[in-house]
User: What shape does this take?
Amino acid sequence: MVQISTSILSSQNRPLAIKKLNETNTNYIHIDVMDGVFVPKKEFPIEELKTLLPLIKKKIDIHLMVEKPENYIKQLNYDNIEYITIHCEIDSDIEMLINIIKNKGYKVGIAISPKTKIAKIKKFINIIDMILIMSVNPGEGGQKFLKSTTKKLKKINKLNKNITISIDGGINLETIKKVKKYINIAVVGSYIINSNNYNETINNLKN
Ligand code: DX5
Ligand code: ZN
Assistant: This one.
């Protein structure tokens, strides 16, 4: 069964969204951190993370869309963080960052943007826990699912059967059907946040 990681990026009231999600069947709460450099927007400054993360009772899935993840990783100390994901496109020593995350006791994800070739992540596959495949260009919620993603998913499935595969961007009841058999986790933002009943929407996506 596919697991759901709910992104609260598009919520107008993030503390309330967290409180509501704590009572649902979402498996994770997904936090999209943006630095205004790797992507144009700035979201979840560290001060906001420090007030929001303690409210979360679910497992936390952090997606760092930032050029310099070290600064963020150092300050992220919460027992329910499960994954910290960094992007393979950044100009940093990725292996060093993988080790920093592992040494903190968290699982490591590597995210890959739509235009990036799979070759870029191949050498990390056996030392990470999750691949996060972006099905929209990173940077904002509410975008349309890119059809080219399905082809990429098929290729990644062949590389390593044991790694957790997550998909992020434009997922709704229609698009999840196309990708379900290739993934373990679906990150879903606006489709859940804009719905009237979070738990009903989450249950429908899982089934
Ligand atoms: C996009 C983010 C996503 C986004 C998902 O850069 O990484 O996690 O919030 O939101 P939806 O589901 O609205 O595309
Ligand atoms: Zn994300």
Notes: Residues 3-206 form a domain with the TIM Barrel fold (CATH 3.20.20.70). Strands lie at 3-7, 28-35, 42-43, 59-65, 81-87, 107-112, 130-134, 164-168, 185-188. The two ends are 8 Å apart (CA to CA). Residues 127 and 160 are 11 Å apart (CA to CA).
